[in-house]
User: Which sequence fits this backbone?
C-alpha cells in the first residue's frame, strides 16, 4: 500500500475517512478473522515420544529389553528408569519453548481507538479489520499494518522490527516505489512498533499473520536445528552401534561353530553390548552441560537449552546485533562544532520537548541526549526554560525536517531552531559557508547523526516558519557509543578463530563507523547494505561473507538468509538479538542469544539469554563452551578406549579358541567400578592452557574425528593385546579360575590407568602435581571403585567367577595397568613435543 495514494488505498479497501459501519466491521471480522497471530501447536505426545529417538537411546532400550528377557530384571529396570528421566527433562524443555509465538501477542495494547459510523470508539485490537480507520497518539503501540492518512510530527520507534536505533520520521503524504524496503516505507505504520511523538490517522490494510510482524511469527514455527553436539553424538552413535552389532554377531557365530554353548554366547554378547554402548555418556554430557550452565549463570548468561552451552565453544561465526549489544543502545552527544556557543546551548535547551526528572526520562531519545550534554557542559537547561517564555512553536515537521520555537527574552522575541542541515541551510540570511558543510560531512563520516541549530532575532511572531531567516549557531553529532570491553572481546574472538559480523537496521555510515571503533571492520573488509545481498546467489554470498563484517539496513529476511547460508556451508552460527525482527534468525541459528532487556518473543526464540546486554559476555562464555567441548571429548575417549579394550580382548580369545577371559557378569561389574564411578568426574576437569588461543573445532571432529579415533584405537588395542597375551601365558601356568581372576582385576586397574591419563592432554610426568590438580574428583572415583572391587573379590568372589589370589599371583594384576599407563604417557609425550615445535 506504500506505493498508492491515500484515495487509492481507501478505494481498494472499500472504506472512507469516516470509517466502517459496525455492521460492515462484523461482516469483515467473519471474513478475515481475528487480528492475532495463530500458533500451530504440536501434540504433547509427539513431543514426548521424540525424546526416545536417538540411536543411543534406541540401543539402550533394546539392550534393556534383552536383559529382562534373559532374567536380568534389575539392570533392565535401571536402564529404563534412566531413559524415562532423560525423556521427561527433554520434554519439559520443549514444552517451555512453545511460548515463542505466544509472546508476540503481548506486543500490542489490548484496545485501540477507531472510527465506526463516523464516531470515535474504543475496541479490542483483535476486532480490527482491514478498512478500519485508526487514531494513534504518542505512546501507542501500533495494532496492525496501517497506511497513514494524516500525520502530525510523527516519529515512530521501529527498532523492534528493523533494528534502527533512532526513531523514524513518518509522512502520510508521500507515495513510494513498489520495491521500497520496509525501513524506507515512511507512509506505513507496522504492527508492534511504538509512536514516540506526534499523532496520526491511518487505515488498516493488514492484520494478524498478514502483517510484517505476522510474517516473522511464521518463521518462528520453523523447527530449530539440532545442536552440533546432538548431531555429532547422533552420527557417532549410529556408526558405533552398527559396528558393535556386526562384530558381536560375527563372534557369536564363530563361537557356535567352535561348539561353545549358544546361551552363554548370547548372554556374553548382550553383556558386551551393554558395556560397549557408553550408556553413561548421555548422563556425563548432561552433567558437563549443567556444570557449564552454572558457570555461565555466574557470568550473566542464562541457559534455556543445555546443548547450547557446548555450541558456544564450537561457534565459527557470531552474527551480532548492533544496538544494545555492541553499542550502549542510548544516544549521546559525541562531538559538536559551535559557531555561537551561547546560542547553541540555548537552542539545545529551548528547542527541545524532552524532560528528565528524578532520573526518569521522557521524550525523544535524541532530545534527551541533548539535555544530558547540556548538564555535562554545565548548563542548567531547566533554568533556561523558566527564564525564556515559549510563545510560539513549530512542531517537528517531517517534510521540512526541523523544529522551531519562539521565546520572549530580555532582548525581545527570539527564534531557536534545530533540524537537518539541508533544511536549515536554505533558511540562512546569507549563503551558508562552505566550511559548515565540510564540518557536517566530517561528523557524518565518523558515523554521527548530525543536527544543525539556528537563531533569529524577530520583531514579531512569524505566521509561517518559511518566512524566517536564520543564522547557524552550531552543529551537534550524536552517537550510540560502543560498550566498554567490546573492542577487546572482538579481538579475542578473532584470535579464537571466530568471525564476527555486525548485522543492523542502522544506516551504512553509522554501522561502519561503530564497527571500526570496536575492530569488527578494518581494511580489506566489506560493509554492505541488506538490499545488495539479493545480487548474489547463496554460493557467491558465502564467499563474500568471509570478508563481509558489516551488513547495514538489514531486514529480518536478510539476517535469516545469512545464517542459513553459513549453516549450509557447515559453519556453526551464534546469533544475538533483542527485537522481534531478530526472531527468525534466533530461531534457526545453532545458538540464538537474546538480550535480557529485549522483547519476550526474542527471549522465547533463543536458547540462551544474556542478562547484561554485551557482546563481551558472549565471547567470555565461549571459554566455558570450549572447556565443555574438551571435557566431553575426553570422556568419549576414555569410555570408548575401555569399551574397545573389552571388545578386542574377548574377540581375540574367541577367535583363537581360548576360554572367555571375562564373563558377562564381570563385564557388567567392570563397567560399574570404572566407567560408573570415574566418567562422572570428567565434567569438572579444568582447562589446560588458554582456550581463546585455539581455533574452533567442529563437534564431530572434536568428539569423533580422525585424531580422536587414533587415540581410542591406540589405547584400546594396547590394553586388549597385552591382556590377551598375559591371559594366554597365565593359562599355561595357572588354572583357568586363577587366570580369569587376574584378568578380571587387571582389567579394572587398567581402565583406571586410562581414566587418569585421559584427564589431561599434556604428559602426566611433565608436572605431576599440576596434573593431579586438573581434576581431583577422578581419584575420588577410583578410590570408591577400589573399595567396591575389594568387597567383590573378598566377600562375594563366587558371584564373579573369581578366587582368592596368593601373594605370588598378585603382582600379575599390576603388569598390564603399568604398561598401559606408560604407553599412553609415551603417546602424549610424542604429541606434546610435536606440537611444541
Assistant:
Amino acid at each position: 500500500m506504500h506505493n498508492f495514494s491515500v484515495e487509492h488505498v481507501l478505494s481498494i479497501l472499500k472504506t472512507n475517512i469516516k470509517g466502517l459501519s459496525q455492521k460492515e466491521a462484523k461482516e469483515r471480522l467473519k471474513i478475515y478473522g481475528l487480528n492475532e497471530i495463530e500458533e500451530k501447536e504440536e501434540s504433547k505426545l509427539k513431543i514426548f515420544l521424540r525424546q526416545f529417538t536417538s540411536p543411543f537411546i534406541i540401543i539402550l532400550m533394546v539392550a534393556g529389553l534383552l536383559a529382562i528377557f534373559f532374567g536380568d530384571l534389575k539392570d533392565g529396570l535401571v536402564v529404563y528408569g534412566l531413559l524415562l528421566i532423560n525423556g521427561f527433562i527433554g520434554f519439559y524443555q520443549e514444552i517451555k519453548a512453545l511460548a515463542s509465538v505466544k509472546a508476540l501477542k503481548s506486543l500490542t495494547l489490548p484496545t485501540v481507538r477507531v472510527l465506526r459510523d463516523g464516531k470515535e470508539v474504543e475496541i479490542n485490537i483483535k476486532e480490527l479489520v482491514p478498512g478500519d480507520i485508526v487514531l494513534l497518539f504518542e505512546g501507542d503501540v501500533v495494532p496492525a499494518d496501517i497506511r497513514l492518512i494524516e500525520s502530525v510530527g510523527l516519529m515512530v520507534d521501529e527498532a523492534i522490527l528493523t533494528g534502527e536505533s533512532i526513531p523514524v520520521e513518518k509522512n502520510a503524504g508521500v507515495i513510494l516505489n513498489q520495491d521500497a524496503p520496509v525501513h524506507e516505507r515512511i507512509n506505513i505504520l507496522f504492527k508492534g512498533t511504538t509512536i514516540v511523538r506526534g499523532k496520526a490517522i491511518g487505515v488498516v490494510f493488514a492484520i494478524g499473520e498478514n502483517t510484517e510482524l505476522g510474517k516473522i511469527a511464521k518463521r518462528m514455527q520453523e523447527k530449530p536445528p539440532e545442536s552440533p553436539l546432538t548431531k555429532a553424538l547422533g552420527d557417532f552413535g549410529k556408526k558405533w552401534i552398527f559396528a558393535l552389532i556386526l562384530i558381536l554377531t560375527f563372534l557369536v557365530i564363530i563361537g557356535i561353530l567352535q561348539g561353545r554353548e549358544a546361551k552363554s554366547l548370547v548372554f556374553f554378547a548382550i553383556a558386551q553390548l551393554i558395556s560397549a554402548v557408553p550408556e553413561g555418556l548421555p548422563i556425563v554430557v548432561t552433567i558437563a552441560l549443567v556444570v557449564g550452565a552454572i558457570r555461565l549463570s555466574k557470568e550473566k548468561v542464562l541457559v534455556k537449552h543445555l546443548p547450547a552451552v557446548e555450541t558456544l565453544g564450537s561457534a565459527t561465526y557470531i552474527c551480532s546485533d548492533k544496538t544494545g549489544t555492541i553499542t550502549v543502545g542510548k544516544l549521546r552527544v559525541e562531538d559538536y562544532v559551535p559557531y555561537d556557543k551561547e546560542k547553541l546551548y540555548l537552542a539545545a535547551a529551548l528547542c527541545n520537548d524532552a524532560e528528565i526528572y528524578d532520573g526518569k526520562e521522557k521524550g525523544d531519545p535524541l532530545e534527551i541526549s541533548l539535555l544530558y550534554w547540556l548538564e555535562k557542559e554545565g548548563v542548567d537547561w531547566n533554568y533556561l526554560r523558566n527564564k525564556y517564555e515559549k510563545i510560539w512553536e513549530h512542531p517537528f515537521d517531517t517534510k521540512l525536517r526541523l523544529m522551531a520555537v519562539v521565546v520572549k527574552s530580555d532582548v525581545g522575541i527570539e527564534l531557536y531552531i534545530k533540524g537537518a542541515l539541508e533544511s536549515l541551510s536554505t533558511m540562512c540570511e546569507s549563503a551558508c559557508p562552505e566550511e559548515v558543510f565540510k564540518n557536517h560531512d566530517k561528523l557524518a563520516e565518523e558515523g554521527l547523526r548530525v543536527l544543525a541549530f539556528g537563531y533569529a532575532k524577530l520583531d514579531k511572531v512569524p505566521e509561517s516558519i518559511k518566512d524566517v531567516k536564520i543564522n547557524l549557531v552550531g552543529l551537534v553529532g550524536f552517537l550510540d557509543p560502543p560498550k566498554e570491553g567490546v573492542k577487546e572481546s572482538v579481538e579475542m574472538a578473532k584470535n579464537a578463530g571466530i568471525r564476527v559480523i555486525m548485522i543492523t537496521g542502522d544506516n551504512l555510515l553509522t554501522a561502519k563507523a561503530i564497527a571500526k571503533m570496536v575492530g569488527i571492520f578494518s581494511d580489506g573488509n566489506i560493509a554492505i547494505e541488506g538490499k545488495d545481498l539479493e545480487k548474489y546467489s547463496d554460493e557467491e554470498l558465502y564467499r563474500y561473507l568471509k570478508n563481509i563484517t558489516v551488513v547495514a539496513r538489514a531486514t529480518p529476511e536478510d539476517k535469516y538468509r545469512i545464517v542459513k547460508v553459513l549453516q549450509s556451508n557447515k559453519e556453526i552460527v551464534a546469533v544475538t538479538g533483542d527485537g522481534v525482527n531478530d526472531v527468525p534468525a534466533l530461531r534457526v541459528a545453532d545458538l540464538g542469544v537474546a538480550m535480557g532487556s529485549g522483547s519476550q518473543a526474542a527471549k522465547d526464540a533463543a536458547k540462551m539469554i544474556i542478562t547484561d546486554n554485551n557482546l563481551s559476555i558472549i565471547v567470555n562464555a565461549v571459554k566455558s563452551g570450549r572447556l565443555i567441548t574438551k571435557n566431553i571429548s575426553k570422556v568419549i575417549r576414555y569410555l570408548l578406549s575401555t569399551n574397545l579394550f573389552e571388545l578386542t580382548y574377548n574377540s581375540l580369545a574367541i577367535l583363537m579358541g581360548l576360554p572367555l577371559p571375562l564373563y558377562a557378569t564381570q563385564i557388567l561389574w567392570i563397567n560399574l567400578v570404572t566407567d560408573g564411578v570415574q566418567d562422572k568426574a570428567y565434567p569438572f576437569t579444568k582447562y589446560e592452557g588458554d582456550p581463546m588461543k585455539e581455533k574452533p573445532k567442529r563437534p564431530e571432529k572434536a568428539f569423533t574425528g580422525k585424531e580422536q579415533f587414533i587415540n581410542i584405537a591406540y589405547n584400546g588395542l594396547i590394553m586388549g593385546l597385552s591382556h590377551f597375551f598375559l591371559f594366554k601365558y597365565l593359562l599355561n601356568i595357572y588354572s583357568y579360575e586363577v587366570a580369569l581372576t587376574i584378568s578380571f582385576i587387571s582389567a579394572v586397574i587398567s581402565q583406571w590407568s586410562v581414566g587418569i591419563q585421559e584427564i589431561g592432554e599434556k604428559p602426566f610426568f611433565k608436572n605431576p602435581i599440576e596434573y593431579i590438580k586438573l581434576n581431583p574428583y577422578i581419584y575420588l572415583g577410583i578410590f570408591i571403585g577400589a573399595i567396591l572391587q575389594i568387597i567383590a573379590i573378598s566377600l562375594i568372589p563366587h558371584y564373579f567367577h573369581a578366587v582368592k589370589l596368593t601373594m605370588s599371583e598378585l603382582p600379575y594384576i599390576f603388569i598390564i595397568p603399568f604398561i598401559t599407563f606408560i604407553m599412553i604417557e609415551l603417546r602424549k609425550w610424542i604429541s606434546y613435543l610435536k606440537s611444541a615445535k
